[in-house]
Amino acid sequence: MFMRPSSRTAILDAAFRLAGHDGGSIEITFEATAKEAGVTKGGVLYHFPTRDDLVLGVVGYVAQRVDEAMLDRLSTPFEQATAAERIRAYVDVVAAGRLTRADLAIFAESLANPALAAPWEAVLSRWLAVDEVADRVVRARLRTAHLAADGLWIADATGIFAPADDRQAVIDQLIDLTHTAQSTEKEELS
Fold this sequence. Notes:
Blueprint: H1 7-21, H2 30-37, H3 41-47, H4 51-73, H5 83-95, H6 101-110, H7 114-128, H8 136-158, H9 167-189
Helix pairs in contact: 1-2, 1-4, 1-6, 2-3, 4-5, 4-6, 4-7, 5-8, 5-9, 8-9
């Protein structure tokens, strides 16, 4: 049986699509969102009484989508995942193109506003934390993989310096960094 997404989800999807069309600006209006979602402006206002509520809803929705994409990449429950497995999930999501130009624009614009940055910080801090790794070299490998994946996301999203010919080789290097770190992490636990 086909189930329609809730109006709230349809509105968030629509606002996200609008952010992607506009070069990524989160200058989202009630009117444009309503039109894109196929609902009335009143329908948008019912779920999001203020523009700030709508923008915060979109940021939270996008951060949640990123979190879910990374959870899909883990082969173990999150609570049991090592830092290397979490970073590898992030690299996998970036490599698969699951983080788009609109995701990047929403992320970048939200950083200037602490309320908008909070959903991203909640998601990314739990995935990209490496503080529990005792070995400084292993932590550095994991941070390098994370930061290089950030760069790949930016390159893919903007088309600037995108490593078209070398993209897979870059991804393989990032994955290798996480595998090397994973092996060392397991040795530390033994």
